[in-house]
C-alpha cells in the first residue's frame, strides 16, 4: 500500500481500513481522484466531518434545532408539520384594500400587509379574492393605489380574480363574496374580512354557522395589520387557537389565597392553598369536630386501659 496516499486520505478523515481496501482494489498506481471517488462510492465518510457535525438544512430541521436562516426550513419536516396544523386563510381583497385606503382608495398595499402577516405566522394556504375589473386602469370614481401588487400576488398563485365582463357597455360582475365564503367553507379555513356577509348567512344555514365561527376581523394601525387577540370575544378562543386546526387548551391557573395559612374558610375557600394539597380541606368547624372525635376516642381507650389494669 502506498504510504503517501494512505497518509493523505487519513488526514482527510477517511478510515484506514477503507483506504487500504480501495488501494488494494485499484492498485498502487491509482490516481488520487480515482481513490477519492471509490471512497465516496463505498460510503466511507470522513470522521472529521462526523465529529464536527457540520450543519446541513435537513439535519437541523430533522433534529428540531433552530436555524438562523429561515429559508433553510423549506425542506424540513417541522415547517410542513406547522403548516399542516394551521388553518387555510381566505382574504376578502376588496374589503381589506378599501379598509387600508380609508374607504376612499383601493389600496393594494393593504392586501400585501395582510398576506405578509399570515406568511410570517407560517400559513402556506393563503388566497385573496378580488374582482377581475380591478385589473383595469383606475378611474376617477374608483382610484387604485399600488396596482402592480395585484400582478405580483397573482404570479405567486395567491391572488384569484373573480369573473366579470362587459355586456353592451355595462359591467357584469360575479358576486365575489360567494367565492370567498365557499372556498373558506370547503377548505375549513378562516375568512379575513370586516364584512358580516348577512345575505349569505340567510341563504345557507351551514354558511351562517361557519361565518359566525370563522370570521376574522382586523384593523390597520399605522400600516400594521392587526387582528384581535380574541376573535370571538373575551370568552372565546385566543387568536393562536382560532387560527389552528388543533387548538391548545389553556392551563387553569388557580389564584393563591390572599390570606394564606390564616384563611378560615376551609374547604369553602375558592382560592388555591398549596399547604392544603396533602390534607382534606375542611371548614374550621369540621376540623374542630374531627379533633374532638379523636380526643374522645383516645380518652375512652385510655379509660379502658386503666380499667384492665
From TrEMBL:
Domain C3H1-type: 251-276
Pfam families reported in the protein's UniProt record: RNase_Zc3h12a, UBA_6
Cofactor: Mg(2+)
CDD domains for this protein: PIN_Zc3h12-like
The keyword Repeat is annotated on this UniProt entry: no
GO CC term, one of those recorded: cytoplasmic ribonucleoprotein granule
Keyword list, A-Z: Endonuclease, Hydrolase, Magnesium, Metal-binding, Nuclease, Zinc, Zinc-finger
Coiled coil: none
InterPro entries: Rege-1_UBA-like, RNase_Zc3h12_NYN, ZC3H12/N4BP1_RNase_Reg, Znf_CCCH
GO molecular function: hydrolase activity; mRNA binding; RNA endonuclease activity; zinc ion binding
Positions annotated as zinc finger (C3H1-type): 251-276
UniProt key word Metal-binding: yes
PANTHER family assigned to the protein according to its UniProt record, in alphabetical order: N4BP1-RELATED (PTHR12876), RIBONUCLEASE ZC3H12D-RELATED (PTHR12876:SF11)
Family: Belongs to the ZC3H12 family.
Protein name in the entry: ZC12D ribonuclease
Gene giving rise to this polypeptide: Zc3h12d
Amino acid at each position: 500500500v502506498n504510504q503517501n496516499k494512505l497518509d493523505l486520505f487519513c488526514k482527510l478523515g477517511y478510515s484506514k481500513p477503507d483506504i487500504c481496501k480501495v488501494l488494494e482494489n485499484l492498485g498502487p498506481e491509482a490516481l488520487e481522484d480515482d481513490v477519492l471517488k471509490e471512497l465516496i462510492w463505498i460510503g466511507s465518510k470522513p470522521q472529521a466531518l462526523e465529529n464536527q457535525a457540520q450543519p446541513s438544512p435537513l439535519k437541523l430541521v430533522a433534529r428540531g434545532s433552530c436555524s438562523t436562516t429561515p429559508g433553510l426550513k423549506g425542506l424540513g419536516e417541522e415547517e410542513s408539520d406547522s403548516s399542516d396544523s394551521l388553518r387555510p386563510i381566505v382574504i376578502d381583497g376588496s374589503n381589506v384594500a378599501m379598509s387600508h385606503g380609508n374607504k376612499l382608495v383601493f389600496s393594494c398595499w393593504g392586501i400585501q400587509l395582510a398576506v405578509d402577516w399570515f406568511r410570517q405566522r407560517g400559513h402556506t394556504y393563503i388566497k385573496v379574492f378580488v374582482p377581475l375589473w380591478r385589473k383595469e386602469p383606475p378611474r376617477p370614481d374608483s382610484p387604485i393605489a399600488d396596482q402592480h401588487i395585484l400582478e405580483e400576488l397573482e404570479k405567486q398563485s395567491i391572488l384569484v380574480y373573480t369573473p366579470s365582463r362587459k355586456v353592451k357597455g355595462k359591467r357584469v360582475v360575479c358576486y365575489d363574496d360567494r367565492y370567498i365564503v365557499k372556498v373558506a367553507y370547503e377548505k375549513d379555513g378562516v375568512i379575513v374580512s370586516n364584512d358580516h356577509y348577512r345575505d349569505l348567512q340567510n341563504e345557507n344555514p351551514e354558511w351562517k354557522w361557519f361565518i359566525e365561527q370563522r370570521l376574522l376581523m382586523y384593523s390597520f394601525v399605522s400600516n400594521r395589520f392587526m387582528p384581535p387577540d380574541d376573535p370571538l370575544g373575551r370568552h372565546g378562543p385566543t387568536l393562536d387557537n382560532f387560527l389552528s386546526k388543533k387548538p391548545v387548551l389553556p392551563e387553569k391557573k388557580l389564584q393563591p389565597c390572599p390570606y394564606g395559612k390564616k384563611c378560615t374558610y376551609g374547604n369553602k375557600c375558592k382560592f388555591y392553598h398549596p399547604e392544603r394539597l396533602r390534607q382534606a380541606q375542611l371548614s374550621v368547624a369540621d376540623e374542630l369536630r374531627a379533633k374532638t372525635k379523636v380526643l374522645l376516642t383516645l380518652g375512652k381507650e385510655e379509660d379502658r386501659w386503666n380499667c384492665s389494669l
